[in-house]
Amino acid sequence: MFNEFSTTELLKASLVLFAVIDIIGSIPVIIKIKTSAGAIYPMKASLVALGIMITFLFLGETLLGLLGVDIRSFAVAGSLILFAMSFEMIFGVQLFKEEGTPKTASIVPLAFPIIAGAGTMTSLISLRAEFQAVNIVFAILINIIIVYVVLVLTKPIERFLGPGGLAITKKVFGIILLAIAVKLFTTNVGGLFN
């Protein structure tokens, strides 16, 4: 197993996952969830996201196949959720009903679909075709550690930004999230009709 380890593959896979998970860009969404639910559990959210990603890395295509769902359909569905979340951030409207408890909010929507969402899962399947599994597993672990640190530091980040900074950051990252949703949608929707 470890003779398949490659620093180059690990670095490439880590960077791809870091860009797709975009935990830094998700800070305004995390703060919104924390405000609505009252609190979040960083360890719980990180471990659930880790479990989802590792499971999907090895069983993703099989699980989707059993459900009769292809990866493109999954990605398009994920893009619609991202679109709705970005709409909330940009226009300050509420589309999703708040679940209310920190325990559930730490899992849905934080662990899934924000951390381990459709974009992440689509990327894992793509990486699996290109890199050795051991390198992708280590890349996932590195990113989960980064996610955990950001979740723990949410309060200091919130204090540093202040209400005005948070409002601006939320709008800016709402537009970025919208762009990601549009890209994920346009990249995959064509394949559904072929």
Total helical elements? 8
Computed Rg: 17 Å
Encode the helix/strand succession as letters. HHHHHHHH
- Roughly how many Å apart are the termini? 38 Å
The number of distinct β-strands equals: 0
Structural category is mainly alpha
Strand content: under 5%
Main β-sheet description: none
**Helix proportion range:** over 70%
Q: Mean pLDDT score, rounded?
A: 85
**Outline:** globular
Contiguous low-pLDDT stretches (5 residues minimum) are none
What's the quick description here?
The chain contains 8 helices and no strands. With 194 residues, it is an all-alpha fold.
Layout of strands and helices, then pairs:
Layout: H1 7-21, H2 27-37, H3 42-66, H4 71-91, H5 102-115, H6 118-130, H7 133-152, H8 154-189
Helix pairs in contact: 1-6, 1-7, 2-5, 2-8, 3-5, 3-6, 3-7, 4-6, 4-8
Salient structural properties:
globular, 194 residues, 80% helix
Structure characterization notes:
80% of the residues lie in helices and 0% in strands. It is built from eight helices and no strands. It has helices at 7-21, 27-37, 42-66, 71-91, 102-115, 118-130, 133-152, 154-189. Helix 4 crosses helix 8 (154-189). The longest helix has 36 residues, at 154-189. The chain is globular and about 50 Å long.
